[in-house]
Amino acid sequence: MSLEQIELLESLGLKLFFVAIFLLIGLAIQDVLKRGKVPRFGRFIVWLVLFLGCAGFVAKGIIEVAWEGGGLG
After folding, report:
1. Total structural domains within the chain
2. Which Pfam family name is an example for this entry (predicted)?
3. What is the DSSP letter of 70?
4. Which domain holds residue 34?
5. For residues 57 and 33, what is the distance between their CA atoms, to the nearest angstrom?
6. Rounded Cα gap, residues 7 and 4, in angstroms
7. Cβ atoms of residues 67 and 60 within 8 Å
8. Whole-model pTM above 0.85?
9. Residue 72 carries which DSSP code?
10. Which residue from 8, 11, 50, 59 puts its CA 20 to 30 A from 66's CA?
């Protein structure tokens, strides 16, 4: 394997790791909300914050790819 292929594999593995972590965090939060009998508005706020965090992470990745693709990084 070339160095470029290894870097690509590491990058892909890291991104998949982050997806798995976000999934596990979501499942843990769902369990805590269910067991704590949190009201609907509170659940909405919790999921909104989680979604915005994930969206920010995805936006960062897209900006990073665009930045590097433009030859600026």
Report:
1. 1
2. DUF2788
3. T
4. 3-69
5. 23
6. 5
7. no
8. no
9. -
10. 50
